[in-house]
Amino acid sequence: MYLKSLEIQGFKSFADKIVLNFNSGLTSVVGPNGSGKSNIADAVRWVLGEQSAKTLRGSRMEDVIFSGTQHRKPVGFASVSLVIDNSDRTLPIDFSEVTITRRMYRSGESEYAINKTPCRLKDITELFMNTGVGREGYSIIGQGRIDEILSARSEERRQVFEEAAGITKYKARKREAERK
Ligand code: ATP
Ligand code: MG
């Protein structure tokens, strides 16, 4: 499984639709300060369901919608689609390509979709559970995260290992069953 491409429209500094294609190897994003490098990482977190505006370096969730510049009017919605190559069927879904989409309007409601079929955030979270991908997964290591893991309490650190060992999903299901 690898990240194949990312389509961003109306999200943070990306007013127009842009498509970034990645290969299975290593990709670095370079550019001057303020050119939008971190916004790309934010887009990945956001489409995977990030709910914290602060984690996305804003104060309200609406801050992710392109807010205009001197020469350009604000836009009405933000949309990000992330395409994953799933030829190896790492994701438990029978498609070799999986597209996850999130769209949000200024009213605040987010819509999610898997392969263009509307779904709940929960479906996306479950799809990525045990794979290390996802907003809590270890495949996105933000600045300061390594320090955080090293200095975390042992129970918190255990969660990282549980995700890597592939038992997060079963624990979540157990919790849900116990609640019913
Ligand atoms: P650095 O090298 O300093 O880390 P960077 O390339 O990571 O820079 P980003 O933080 O990704 O830069 O981008 C910051 C830019 O995004 C700023 O110019 C900011 O005005 C713009 N930006 C953020 N949110 C929005 C928004 N909602 N609408 C328009 N522009 C936005
Ligand atoms: Mg940055």
UniProtKB/TrEMBL annotation:
ATP binds at P32, N33, G34, S35, G36, K37, S38, N39. It is found in: Cytoplasm. Required for chromosome condensation and partitioning. Contains large globular domains required for ATP hydrolysis at each terminus and a third globular domain forming a flexible hinge near the middle of the molecule. These domains are separated by coiled-coil structures. Homodimer. Belongs to the SMC family. This is Chromosome partition protein Smc. The lineage of its organism: Bacteria, Bacillati, Bacillota, Clostridia, Eubacteriales.
